[in-house]
Task: inverse folding
């Protein structure tokens, strides 16, 4: 599955390229499954031809598509009529932050299919990052719990929700960087750690994956790190001491990434 990171912010796009690079090198499209698109969602859809694509809708807990990337999705796929249909599909009630709901655009009636299914988008995945855009949720006094953690969780949830689907492309915007208020570096570092780690699914064990996540999120719980995981760390040049002492606010994610 190809992953396209799409945002109108030049700073976010530059930061994605930097954090997706391996061992200090910038992102090379020849080496990675990721692509960064600096521009609007509509321009991305017009510049490329998609046949089976999933898009992440990262907005609020009630499915309204009135701002940011959600608004771009709404405008491109049919305006208020699409928003009304979309909210019916996810269920118009409360969806807690951390949940995800997959909406299959091919489940509409004939008129609806003609309106938006010819855009090449098969799924819109509702991954709410905030209850409602009433105030910024990020608190600079608690960058982990209000920044790194919610961004990582939203990214991981997006990837886990899309992986079982029959899609060849996943489009993700900058997460929690709008109304949520998370600074660019925190957003991109968290997203890129999740993206890079998830792309290693078939090459590292679940135990090692879990150990890396615990360290990134500042939950370095030694009893959860098995002897086989420690052996794997040694084989893949992952320092256990760096893993235990990792500080996401100061350290490079390269310092704990497996050497593969």
Result:
């Amino acid at each position: 599955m190809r992953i396209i990171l799409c945002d109108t912010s030049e700073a976010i796009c530059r930061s994605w390229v930097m954090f997706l690079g391996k061992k200090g090198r910038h992102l090379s499209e020849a080496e990675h499954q990721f692509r960064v698109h600096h521009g609007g969602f509509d321009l991305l859809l017009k510049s490329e031809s998609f046949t089976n694509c999933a898009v992440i809708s990262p907005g609020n807990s009630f499915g309204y598509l009135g701002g940011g990337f959600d608004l771009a999705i709404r405008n491109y796929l049919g305006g208020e009529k699409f928003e009304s249909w979309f909210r019916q599909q996810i269920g118009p009630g409360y969806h807690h932050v951390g949940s995800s709901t997959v909406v299959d655009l091919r489940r509409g009636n004939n008129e609806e299919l003609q309106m938006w299914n010819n855009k090449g988008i098969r799924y819109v995945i509702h991954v709410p990052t905030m209850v409602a855009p009433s105030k910024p949720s990020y608190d600079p006094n608690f960058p982990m719990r209000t920044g790194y953690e919610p961004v990582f969780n939203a990214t991981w949830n997006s990837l886990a929700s899309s992986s079982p689907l029959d899609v060849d492309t996943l489009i993700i915007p900058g997460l929690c960087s709008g109304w949520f208020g998370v600074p660019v570096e925190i957003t991109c570092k968290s997203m890129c750690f999740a993206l890079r780690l998830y792309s290693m699914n078939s090459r590292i064990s679940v135990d090692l994956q879990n150990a890396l996540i615990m360290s990134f999120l500042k939950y370095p719980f030694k009893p959860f790190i098995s002897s086989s995981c420690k052996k794997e760390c040694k084989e893949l040049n992952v320092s256990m001491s760096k893993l235990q002492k990792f500080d996401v606010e100061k350290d490079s994610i390269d310092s704990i990434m497996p050497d593969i």
About this structure: The first helix runs from residue 10 to 20.
